[in-house]
Amino acid sequence: MDFEALKKYSALHPKPAGLALQYGTAGFRSKAEQLDHVVFRMGLLAVLRSKAVTATIGIMVTASHNPEEDNGVKLIDPLGEMLHPSWEEYATQLANAEEQELQKVITEICQKAAVNLHKDASVFIGRDTRPSSEKLSQSVIDGIQVLGGQYHDYGLVTTPQLHYMVCCQNTQGQYGKATLEGYYEKLSKAFMELIKQSHCSGESQRHLKIDCANGIGALKLSEMKPYFPQEVAIHIYNDGTKEKLNHLCGADFVKVHQKPPGGLDMKPNERCCSFDGDADRIVYYYKDTAGHFHLIDGDKIATLISIFLKEFLAKVKQDFKLAVVQTAYANGNSTRYLQDTLKVPVHCVKTGVKHLHHKAQEFDVGVYFEANGHGTVLFSKAAETKIRQLVKEEKDDEKREAAKMLENMIDLINQTVGDAVSDMLVIEAILALKGLTVQQWDALYTDLPNRLLKVQVADRRVIDTTDAERRALTPPGLQEKIDALVKKYKLSRAFVRPSGTEDVVRIYAEADTQENADALAHEVSLAVF
Ligand code: 16G
Ligand code: ZN
């Protein structure tokens, strides 16, 4: 390794002395001006990771739903999944090394991770529409080049598109073509095949208004539009030409504030949805004739998809195991509906996509969604192979047709990570096939009133949790206090957890009425101090 060149280039991307950041649940996130050295070094790390696993690695510059002034970076592993946890630690060490320690830290990583420096390295790069993203992705390229890695810069792409590219590349095209065109063709073809079977989509049924958070989603949806016939009537709002990214709009805003985004005029009963800033999350909503706002979050999306999959999996009669993975934030009534009414097993894991993804891999068909709208469906290799085989060979018409439906779903779903564009098409296809209106979908169950609060404490790490973050182990006595508060209300539940992305403690409470959910959340927040 040419440490002289490294030293020279690193000096062009100096680390502010004393600044320490952590590779958290969403990679690095910070004010954009603090990130130049981090992205340069993540370019270095991507090369090392690529050499260690002999595969193409992805690197995405984005801060998702965070304010436009922020930015972030995360690495994507070979099959399009999140960076392996053991390397998250290396990422943190490398980002925080003072200039004179850089060589030592790199050497250590190479030793610990058995990196063979003689191997080739290949990195795919993508970025969101933030003003700071272009320059930061240039610094990523500097880092890659200094270690002699090859790269392909996809420029402006959604986060899930980059995950898709990396997976295509490392599976020799089995997952699809590693181009934007390949992505659009694969998804649009599967979608059109699916809705061919729908008989009940009237004119008004087809319209969908999409709030793109003034981000990358708008650009990519416009690119995709020509792949669809005119009947697919999607209307793009908050396309980034007028307002700031994520400002008073986007999936996170809508979910957190439980109200419609700015910039989108909603008529009663119109179906609308919001993407987040990098288009890996989606939530739906509508306004009823009385003017009340109804949010359809990740839990209800998981429910709709599960209903569809359960029906068609039953038709192919293969005894595939279907399960849903949620986090502690899932509304209690969604869990009850899935388990008791739909009879689909539900599993709860810690917050963060990697935990949900990992758990969902245990089943033939694993549906996972966070309440905030990030999610997808995973099919095991065996299930996918069997379904494709049934499409080709099954003699029984009904079974073969059901398999065909599932095969198109498999192709429409981005199995690498939650993808707002793909999820939207999955939802639109299911609504059309089942002839469901947005109100009927919403009426599957009623969300329990809930409240999310955050509080600043001296050190959020004093809170340690267990049972998928649903119970606090420390500080001593806290869980007992929460238990006593929860007992005061009906249908109630509450938990606290340290945030993985902000210096705060988050509190979640739900109860029979909004007043009670609010009161419970407030009382729990007082118990945290
Ligand atoms: C990150 C996670 C998201 C999670 C959120 C929780 C990924 C790609 N993203 O944005 O899934 O919901 O963190 O944030 O894993 P918190 O720890 O601050 O509550
Ligand atoms: Zn996002």
Automatic annotation (TrEMBL):
Q: Which residues does Mg(2+) bind?
A: 64, 276, 278, 280
Q: Which UniProt keywords apply?
A: Acetylation, Carbohydrate metabolism, Coiled coil, Isomerase, Magnesium, Metal-binding, Phosphoprotein
Report the GO molecular function annotations: magnesium ion binding; phosphoacetylglucosamine mutase activity
Pathway involvement? Nucleotide-sugar biosynthesis; UDP-N-acetyl-alpha-D-glucosamine biosynthesis; N-acetyl-alpha-D-glucosamine 1-phosphate from alpha-D-glucosamine 6-phosphate (route I): step 2/2
The EC number of this protein is: 5.4.2.3
According to the record, cofactor stoichiometry and binding are noted as:
Binds 1 Mg(2+) ion per subunit.
Q: Could you list the residue ranges forming a coiled coil in this record?
A: 388-415
Q: Where is the active site?
A: 64
**This protein's name:** Phosphoacetylglucosamine mutase
